[in-house]
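Lab notebook, bench 4. We co-purified these components, and the gel suggests they stay together. Before we commit to crystallization screens, I want a quick structural picture of the whole thing.
Request: model the full complex, all chains together.
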Amino acid sequence: MTKQALLQKFAPAMRPLAGIAAGLAVAAIIMLCSGYHPVAAFAAMWTGATGLEAGPATSDTMIRLGSGHINLFLLAQTLAKITPLLFTGTAIAVGLRAGLFNIGAQGQMLMGALFAAGVGALGKHSAAGDGSINPGLHVLLVLVAGAAAGALWGALSGVLKAYRGVHEVISTIMLNFAALDIIQYLVTHNMKDDAPGSMSAQSPLMAQTAWLWPYVHGSNLTAGILLAIISTFAAALFIGRTSTGLQIRAVGLSPDTARASGIDVRRITVLTMALSGAIAGLAGAVEVMGIHHRYVAGVAGTAGFDGIAVALLGNLSGPGVALSALFFGALASGSGYMETTTNVPAPISEIVQAVVILLVGIKAAIRFRRPGTKAERKETHGISG
Amino acid sequence: MGSAGNQGFWFTALLVATLNGAAPLLLAAMGGILSERAGVVNIALEGLILSGAFAGAYFGQHSALIGLVAALTVGAALGLLHAVLTQVTKMNHVVSGLGINLLAAGATRYLTLVLFPDGITSKSLPPAFYLASAAILPAALAFVLRDTRFGLRLRAAGENPESARMAGVSILPVRLVAVTLSGICAAFAGTFLSLGETHTFSRDMSAGKGYIALAAVIFGKWNPAGAAVASLFFGLFYAVQTQLQIRGLNINFLGVEWTSPALLDMLPYLMTLAALISVIGRATPPAALGQEEGSAH
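Here is the predicted assembly.
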C-alpha cells in the first residue's frame, strides 16, 4: 500500500484521534493548574481502566503478566462501564443515520429499566428472590420488556415528528423529564418496593431467574456486554445491508429526495425512533438485570447522554461506536480509580468528554436532516429550538 | 379550614414561592428568546445557568457585586463560544449546546472539589433585585425586539437571513451579539440560585432549569410576554406542589394520586408538548432557527 493510500484509509480516524488527544491535553493542563501531577494521574487512570498493575499477583482475580499482573476486577469494571455506552451510542447513531437527533436515549433507557424491573419481579416466591419461571425464558421476557418500553417512548417522539412536525430534540428533552416523573410516581405508588423496612423509592427485587450474573466475582460485568456488542454490529448491518436500512439512510441524506423516490418518510421516522429507543431500552434492562436487580434512582447514570459523545466520536459507524464506547468507558472507569488513588477529582473525565464533543462536532460527518424546500420547511418547522 | 389570617398567609406563601420559582426560569427564558429569535438554537441555557451560579458563588464570597459581574462575564464568554461554534465553525447547534452543558457540568463539579470541597458561603443579593429585573426584562426585551434597529435585524436573522443580507444587513455580528447577550441572561438567572436564593453553590444546582426555561420559550411562542407568563405558570406549579405537600392534601381518582409531586412536576413538559402539537394554540418557531445561513438553498 502506498503512503497516500494508507493515509486515505485512516483519514476518517484522524479527527476523532485528534479530538481525544486534545481532550487529554486540556485535562493535563487543568490538572497542572490545580496542582496535581498529570503523569501520575494518567498512570492511575490507565491502571484503573486496564487493570494492568505492577507487583506480584496477590489474589485469585489477578493474573500474572511479566513482572506485573492484570487485576481482573478492575478490567471487568471497565467492561461493565462500556456496556451501556455501546447500547446508547448505537441507539443515537441509528437515529442520526436517519437525520434524527435522539437526545432522549436517557428517558428511553430509564423506561426500559423500569419495565424490565417490573417483568423481572414476576414469578417470585419470596423476598429473597427465588423465582418460578424458567430462567432462560424469564431473561428473554425481561429483555423484550425493556426493549419494548424504550421503543414506545422513542416512537412517541417519532410520531410527534412525523405527524405534527415537532422537532425530536425538543420532544425528547420533554419526554426525558416526563419519564423521570412517571417513574418516580410508579416506584412510590403502584410499583413500590413492599418489602418490610424498605423506605426508598425503588421497585421490588427482581426474581433471580431474571438476573444476569457477574463473570468476575463482585464486579458488574455480565453477559450484557455480549448483548451490547451484538446489538452494535447487528444495528450496523441492519442500517448498512437491508432495504429498510437503505431507506433510513436515504431519509437521513435528504427527506425530500427520499419522499420523491417513493419512501414513506413518516413510517421511517417512527420506525427509526422506535428502533433507537428499543436499543436504549435494552441498556436499561441490562443494567437492572446485572447490577441493581430492581429499579433504583440513578440506574442509568448519564449513559443516555454519554451515548451522544460515543455516537459522534464513532462517526456513527458500528466499529466506530464500539471503539469510542471503549474509550469513554475506559475514561470513566479509569477516572474513578484515579480519584481514589491520586485524589484528582473524577469529573475531569467529563471535561475531556466535553472537549472531545466540541472538537469532533466542528466538522462531524453527520448529515442532520435539514428541511430542503420552502414547503418542507413549513411542514417540519425547521429545527425548533 | 383555617382562619382568615391563615388564609392570607397561605396566599402570601404561594405568591412568594411562585415568584421565586418563576424568576430564574423567566430570566433564562429571555436569554433563550434572544438566541432563538436570532436563529440560533440554544439548549446551552442549562450549562450557562450552572456556570453563572458557580461563578456568582465563588467570586461572590466577599462581595455579591463582584460575584454578579464575574458570573455575567462567564455567561458572556460561554454565550460567545456557542455563537462562534455555531456561526463561524458551523457546528450543529444542538451538538454545541450539549457540549457546553457537559463542559459546564464537568468543570463546575471538578472546580467544586478542587476549590471548596467543604462547601462555600457567598454574600447575597436581595431577592427584590431579581424580582424587579424579572419584571422589567420582558418589557425591555419586547421593546428592543419590536422597536429598535438591532431588534429588527435580530428578527430578520432568525426569520429570513437571505433577505436581510440582500438588504445589506450582515447576519454574523447580529447573531454573535444576540447569543452573547443570551449567555448573560442565563448566567444572571444562575446567580439568582447562588446569590439570591441560597448564598452557596451545590453541584448540579441548575437541576434542569435551563430546559424548563426553554420550554417556557416555546410555550410562550418565542415572545417575551408569553415566555414570562409561561414562567409564572410553571413557577405556580412548583409552589402548589410544595403547598399540597405541606398541607398533606391529595386527590385520588381512578386509583391515581393526581396531586403527587411527581405528576405535578410533569405538567410543564406535557404542556410544552401540547403547545407544539397545537392542543393549546400552535407554537411556531422562527423560520430560520437552527439553519446555517443559506444552507436551505
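The beta strands of chain A are 52-53, 62-65, 68-71. Worth comparing against the SEC data before the next meeting. Residues 365-385 of chain A have pLDDT under 50 and may be disordered.
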